[in-house]
Amino acid sequence: MEKARESLWLKSAPNPSFPPLPEDATADVCIVGGGIAGITAALLLQQAGKRVILLEAGKLGNGVTGFTTAHLTEALDTRWYDLIGTFGREAAKLVAQSQRAAIERIARTIEEERIACSYRSLPGYLYSETSPEQIEREYEAARSLGLQVLLSESAPLPFRTTKALRFENQAQLHPLEYLLAIARKLEARGVRIHEQTRALEFEEGEPCRVRTAQGTVSAAQVLVCTHSPVNDKFFLQTKLAQYRSYVVTAPLASPIEGLFWDDADPYHYLRMHDGLLIAGGEDHKVGQKPDTNQPYEKLRAYAMERFGKLDFRDEWSAQVVETVDGLPYIGRNSNQTRIYVATGFSGNGMTHGTAAAMLLRDQVLGLKNPWSQVYAATRIKPAGALEWIKENVDFPLHLVGGKLRPAEAKALEEVPRGEGRIVAVSGKKLAAFRDDQGALKVLSPVCTHMGCDVGWNPAEKSWDCPCHGGRFNTDGEVINGPPVTPLKKPVF
Length: 492
Prior knowledge:
With 492 residues, the chain is of the alpha+beta class. The chain has helices spanning 8-12, 36-47, 80-87, 89-113, 133-144, 175-188, 294-307, 349-365, 372-375, 385-404, and strands at 25-32, 52-55, 71-72, 120-128, 149-152, 163-172, 192-194, 199-203, 208-212, 216-227, 240-251, 259-262, 269-273, 276-285, 315-323, 329-332, 339-343, 419-425, 428-434, 440-443, 455-457, 462-464, 471-472, 478-480. Helix content is 27%, strand content 28%.
């Protein structure tokens, strides 16, 4: 996968390789996706005695898990008072229990498997720089759900805050040291892990079949843990929105102690790792911001306004999938009984992904789980109807708008080195990229998911789709789903 920016975690973690699927294979469970949800589910199912095959389109952890900031927290992106309003207090209590269980599951795995991954238990703070009302409201909601929270006048940060909500016993870790250590142990225990093996088609049945370019995996059950569900062409996609979230790091002479999130829109988040401040935020919808270098500039300015002059080191961005009602979709997919999905983790991927694996484990084993109903992938909540309508208006607007939008250049010669442009050649639009040596790569701009036109992402050197968040590298290969096939070569 081509990357313009590599995360701190990818730079500092061991990089084991696992072979592609060599031929047709069988298993009790086939897991598609090698991130936190897929690897954790493989561990739990292996411990339950299941024969597991895990397929990863690229490299393990090189998707969203490798670009997270790894906050393990009960402070969700969706406010607890909003979840109470949408789902009711009893359902919100189950969600709170699932987040605590996920943090404890990670801590227990680290202890049982003896994993060195810079794990630390520490408090987390939701704070405001402007108005205390939202923080006070969240305090009352969180306390009513049984969460361990304290309300204070400020957060322990070197700049002014008006109010802070302290969550006890949160945690942080190095996500790839955790993930890859589990993967190596799974391989040693007989779990088959295959990288560079993209799932192309899914067939429900007895058994289910997952077709790849290298062969077909037959399994009694299939778990699709691919961040964006690649087995769902339309229905589930209509309930999802994909965003990019940005991260910068810099050494900090006086480290902050804790995890931190503000109440701005878009919000910002802070933590430390090995003397480095990790600051994130400036989210925007995929494919809908022409200058993707701007969020990095804004994030650096945000950090320096609060911490003084900084020597920035790393910067990267990650894909975040939001749902219309604020909670992930986990469980059986629509009209299917043996294929399960886990998606919509928002900015809480480490805990939501772990909770998803725990829930899917129970569903595969036929065990009752109290979280099943609240996370059901087939649910439609009336409170999320407005967001659902907005997301589905977004699709036709960008589908039609992309076709009507004029090309950015009239000739291939106008494409600068290191950049991409939509170019009109003989009345046909092309997605053209010129590398630093001057070589030109020309593709169709039509996303292979549902036909929207992609746009150039200058910060990540990728072609991004504004309709459902699909991303392609400059060779046209898929970086982020829901598409599973590359951009096509143009035909003249």
